[in-house]
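Handout, section B. The chain below has 155 residues.
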Amino acid sequence: LLPRLGETPDALRNVSVSLDNVGHAQQALGDFAASRATIQESVEIARVLLRRLGEGSITLRDLSVSLLHLGQAQREVGDLEAARRSFEESLELSRQIIQNGGATPESLRDLYVAISKLGDVQRDLGELDFALIAFRECVDLSQRIRERVGETAET
């Protein structure tokens, strides 16, 4: 695909998103090892785009979301330390997006997801005090999101 389309940013981004989708399908089929490898490829492409295009909100978010997907795939195969690293990096990127562009409902939701996933893996690792801190932060974020967008199905 890439040789035909070229390695333009749009082509790379489309391949990265498509790989994430393939990884999700592989997870749904129970092929967690293949899913992990596929989503890792998506993360690598997102990193290439970040290096090429710089730290814009789209490139940061794309990498952050791919890292969330990778962390979930790592968690599915029982590699909890790798999952923690992926979730922590995603969280760092989510905080950077808010610092650079402000706290939008979308950026707050992304932050919520990253913190929640990190809390899940901390709980899995038996780090219950850290998990509790993460989940309490999620409660606070839920309230902030509700204040910004009102009562909706998403909040």
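Note. Residues 1 and 15 are 8 Å apart (CA to CA). Compare this with the example in section A.
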